[in-house]
Amino acid sequence: GPGVPPSLRGSDVFISAGRRDPLVPAGNTQRLADLLEQYGASVSLRWTNGGHTLTPEDAEAAAHWLSAQRV
Question: Mind spelling out the 3-state secondary structure of 8-64?
Answer without folding.
Answer: CCCCEEEEEEECCCCCCCHHHHHHHHHHHHHCCCEEEEEEECCCCCCCHHHHHHHHH
